[in-house]
Amino acid sequence: MSEKIKGIAASAGIAIAKTFILKNPDLSFERSTVSDKEAEKKKLNDALEVSKKELTSIKETAERELGKDKAEVFAAHLMFLSDPEFVGQITSKIDDDSLSAEAALDDVSSFFIQMFESMKDNDYMRERAADVRDVSKRLLAHLLGVSFTSPASITEETVIIAEDLTPSDTAQLNRKYVKGFATDIGGRTSHSAIMSRSMEIPAVVGTKTVMAQAKEGQLAIIDGLNGQVILDPSEEEVAAYKAKQAAYKEQQAEWKKLVSEPTKTADDAHVILGANIGNPGDVEGVVNNGGEAVGLYRTEFLYMGRDKLPTEDEQFDAYKEVLEKMANKPVVIRTLDIGGDKKLSYLPLPEEMNPFLGFRAIRLCLERQDIFRTQLRALLRASAYGKLRIMFPMIATIDEFRQAKAILLEEKEKLVAAGTNVSDDLQVGMMMEIPAAAVLADRFAKEADFFSIGTNDLIQYTMAADRMNEHVSYLYQPCNPSILRLVSNIIDAAHKEGHWAGMCGEMAGDATAIPLLLALGLDEFSMSATSILPARSQLLKLSKEELAKHKEAFLNLDTAEEVLDYVKTKMI
Ligand code: PEP
Ligand code: MG
């Protein structure tokens, strides 16, 4: 009998393959002493050898499939396993204190981690702490005989089953082999879901139980269209899903016919359909799906899946590549938005009670100006190669925007004085994702050149409902009148100052929200590349002028349900 598990449809499409279960290993152990020290040292050596073999193979695969950059971190891990200082100290603890290999490793790795982390002024050394932590985890897993897997090691067609995928796990996925994934936690706007859409991997998240129910290597269907996972499907189910897969491909072929068409509505109004990307490699998908802009480049992914900060030149290359590939179409690049659910192993931040309300994004960049200025210089240098718009994330106050813009202008002046070419058509805008800014949009519109509405965060902050928490997902209501009024306020404020307003939150690609946003006058809709053609096809059938007549009515409804009902009966 097959087992069906409901979840949230995170990325469209259907995948059928064997499961690969990505577990967080249980690495707890009792501290103990040993009498046979030689046996303990042999155990250590065996674990070292297995870890090295494993890392060498992962490194080779990563180099081949993902490029040298992403493989660097594994080279650093290998170096540690051969470091006489590190290994020698573990052996001495076994010899001198009769500690078990696990306890000896724990002591030595804690010592190294602390030492590296205390070198406050030396980024390179601090980054080594993350390496020690990672490599020690692998070694400890082997000492304990617990299996340890990395998504980068997958080299067969599979669907991944996991409790959650961190953004850096997702960054390591190889789309050639990973056909789909399903997780216990997360929602449509968690970053693993967003990444899966930009990588065009079918995904179902927030199932709560898939980890407990799935077995390694069994056949599974991931239905990213309806949010369902089927374990051990019957032959009939496989056949039915293969037919669905084919029908979806056919529908995609229909949409593809619109790839070079302009985006216009039935009454000939024009809006821009842009795409959200995480990596320069995603631009190919934007172009293939007829994107007219990059409405959001989440640069934080450039900082992930590696073991140190990207240099100015590395960043310059990435930004230039995106601008050139977009061939003078607008590209909105957002400055670093780290924190919340996006962490960097080499940039340890203090543990926080509420990371989504914490030290993140522009707050961190204004304090770590070394990181911020490096990124701004790379952006300014790249601006000469296309139509760049720079955007600051998580702006709550006018003062933050002014500070960020002043730093940008300072860097610009320095570059220009040094003879570097910087575009003179540079717009500087901001994400509208904090209610305080949304309410004060009229004032912000006097300072910023454009707004891009980040509904993923704007909804979570307005409704006080964590976007990652499936228990409060019922409060995550894009069409609640409170959200629509904020969106309307933001768009009107931008227009009043002669600016454009876009939306790069997931709401922009939602077929039910699109008529409402068109009615409110949104100028640019930025979404996963795969949503562009379905949106273009939908817009062709809608009249902006007719829809605008409904604006007052739907803004004055009481509930999200009433709005949804209104759209379905009167606006589509
Ligand atoms: C948003 O908050 O809507 C957004 C686009 O940014 P992110 O999802 O990266 O937080
Ligand atoms: Mg956001």
TrEMBL record:
State its location(s): Cytoplasm
What InterPro entries does UniProt report for this protein, alphabetically?
A: PEP-util_enz_mobile_dom (IPR008279), PEP-utilizing_PTS_enzyme (IPR050499), PEP_util_AS (IPR018274), PEP_util_C (IPR000121), PEP_util_CS (IPR023151), Phosphohistidine_dom_sf (IPR036637), PTS_EI (IPR024692), PTS_EI-like (IPR006318)
Q: Could you state one GO cellular component term attached to this entry?
A: cytoplasm
Residues the record lists as binding phosphoenolpyruvate = R298, R334, N456, D457, R467
Q: Which reaction does it catalyse?
A: L-histidyl-[protein] + phosphoenolpyruvate = N(pros)-phospho-L-histidyl-[protein] + pyruvate
State the top-level EC class: transferase
Identify the catalytic residues.
H191 (tele-phosphohistidine intermediate), C504 (proton donor)
The residue ranges of the PEP-utilising enzyme C-terminal domain are: 253-541
Query: What is the predominant subcellular site recorded for this chain?
Result: cytoplasm
Question: Which molecular function terms from Gene Ontology are attached?
Answer: kinase activity; metal ion binding; phosphoenolpyruvate-protein phosphotransferase activity
So what family is this one in? Belongs to the PEP-utilizing enzyme family.
- Please explain the role this protein plays, according to its UniProt record: General (non sugar-specific) component of the phosphoenolpyruvate-dependent sugar phosphotransferase system (sugar PTS). This major carbohydrate active-transport system catalyzes the phosphorylation of incoming sugar substrates concomitantly with their translocation across the cell membrane. Enzyme I transfers the phosphoryl group from phosphoenolpyruvate (PEP) to the phosphoryl carrier protein (HPr).
Q: Which NCBIfam families match?
A: PTS_I_fam
Q: What is this protein called?
A: Phosphoenolpyruvate-protein phosphotransferase
- Source species of the chain: Sporolactobacillus terrae
This protein's encoding gene: ptsI
